[in-house]
Amino acid sequence: MVSVAEANAAADRTIADESVDDRNAGEVTLGESYTETSEILMPTDTNNLGRALGGRVLHWMDICAAIASRRFSGGLTVTAAMEGVEFLAPIEQGEIVTLSGYVFATGRTSMDVKVTVTAEHPAADELRETTTSFFTFVAVDGSHGTRPVPDLACANDHQHALRERALEQHQDRHERTG
Predict the structure, then answer these.
(1) pLDDT at residue 22 above 70?
(2) DSSP string for residues in 42-91
């Protein structure tokens, strides 16, 4: 039986039409920002229970979000905020950790990025969502001043659905945390 979290994680990992490559009229698609990276949870990244150190997971998430924001903006970015981190399940030593992120909203110089972390135990054919968070990045120029970012476009229904789900989840977290 697949949980809602697993279905959401799987949907986030399946960006259709990622090959859209035109940045016309100052627009960049959600798919162009999509980033996915994997690690194996090694002993040096675990606590005394053999589970992932929260700080290591946050570090990986920040890097994933930074790559997504740089791909979207076409240049340097800096982390402005990390909010709504939820550790949903532990990650055990030896599991494959996959992080996926994409830009789901923009301001004049800022981008909101959703990052989802899943853990995979291949021998058990098991995949589960373990952590999610929302990041805000600001685009900067060579002098470290802010610079404008392109508008966000969704190239297809799947990208539009990912964006809408991220916006809803982000809003829900704001309402819960006040």
Answers:
(1) no
(2) -GGGB-TTSBB-HHHHHHHHHHHHHHHHHHHHTS-EEEEEEEEEEE-S--
Q: Three-class SS of residue 123?
A: helix
Would you identify the CATH topology of the domain 4-177? Answer: Thiol Ester Dehydrase; Chain A (3.10.129)
What's the pTM?
Answer: 0.85
Contact present, 127 and 10 (Cβ < 8 Å)? yes
Q: Which of 63, 62, 68 is nearest to 81 (CA)?
A: 62
- Residues written for the chain: 178
**CB neighbour burial string for 145-170, b if at least 16 within 10 angstroms, e if fewer:** eebebbebbbbeebbeebbeebeebb
pLDDT of residue 178: 67
- Rounded to whole angstroms, the Cα distance separating 81 from 65 reads 11
User: Which pLDDT tens digit goes with each residue over 29-84?
Assistant: 999 999 999 999 999 999 999 999 999 999 999 999 999 999 999 999 999 999 97
User: How far, rounded to the nearest angstrom, does the alpha carbon of residue 152 sit from its chain's CA centroid?
Assistant: 16
Residue 52: beta bridge partners? 46
Give yes or no for a contact between 69 and 108, defined as CB atoms under 8 angstroms apart.
no
Nearest by Cα to 152 from 103, 80, 81: 103
